Prior knowledge:
By secondary structure, this protein is an all-alpha fold.
Amino acid sequence: MLIFFLPLFLVLLLIGMPVFFALLAAPGIMLYVEGMDRDIPLLFRNIYNGIDSFPLMAIPFFMLAGEVMNRGGITLSLVNFSQSFIGHVRGGLAHVNVMSSMLFAGLSGSAVADTSAIGSMMIPAMEKNGYSRKFAAAVTAASSVIGPIIPPSGIMIIYAYTMEISVAALFAAGVIPGLMIGLGLMLLIAAMAKRQNLPIASEKATWRQRGSATKSAFWPLLTPVIILGGILGGIFTPTEASAVAVLYTLVVGMFVLRTISLKDIPEIFTNSAKSSAVILLLVGAALAFKTVVSLSHAAEEMAAWTLTISENPLILLFLINILLFIVGMFLDAGPAIIILGPILSPVFISLGIDPVHFAIIMSVNLTVGLATPPMGLVLFVASSVSGVKVETLSRAILPFLAVEVAVIFLITFFPSISMTIPRWLGLA
């Protein structure tokens, strides 16, 4: 009977209960019904125990670093850098949009931040250059999902902590899939540019202009080098790297670019604190939820049921991708990972799938779900920024989603795509 907390949880979500409360209410109710009252206080103790973690401190620090970069106007320097190199080709501003998202991903790791920061700048610019507003919004929404895939990534930190695997290994595994999505989108745009005669943004920049744009973008672009170089080189942990990222971005914003003043600091800290609090409360509730998953033996029952479908890992991976894609349409990536990870991961690990490989499959799939109709969070942010209706945007984004789904299946059935770098570095 205890396993019925899973459908009860879904019912509570459908009637509009916030995810945090549903994560606690569903298992709490079932524990009470089963006469396991003594275990109910365990739920609430585990909220604190789940948050009280040194590795999780990376999340508020990376959120703070992203907020500093947004306020510091770093987005503009990334856009100018991208445009100086590829703005002259047909469909140039669409390419610039995608390339800026790839660069921004290495700084913030947030799809929503990418959509709002780059979208507010690129969507009006693309419309002025001759693109339709719905096309500009679709490109922005589709490319912003690269944010949580190319490290640093908040959802990968959550997955690594929840499932007790290496953050560094996940970061390393996310690099190639993120680049593949970006390049895949740019190839699609190139094909559309010829067929639809998309506009050319500007004349080809001179090498002097490119040098000037590179100089302006140099300090922001050094951020992912410092973060990833430090983590993968063993110089500091992901948590220490996040603190270094905050210090570095503050120095760049206040003293190098001079786009942040002391009066901006309180609002920056307040905004990042609010965002971090939401995520950390979810993580704490998810750890409490995971306790009941263990008590109910849901993972074991799921594994037994899964094997009745097929014992072929490739078939099961195909089916689980479909499931995750559907889940991603309705549930944000973070909550989906902390709810489904403890249930699905043990099943596939028992079938011989590498834990890091499955983590990347799940992370990329649910991240793409952020831009998937009908409930993708990024769609609503892009709609708000652009003024395009969600229904219109949902139709316009479909070709770009097809590319991203193709990448998901490639990394699913060809593990070396995501596992080469972690293995090369000795992390997996």
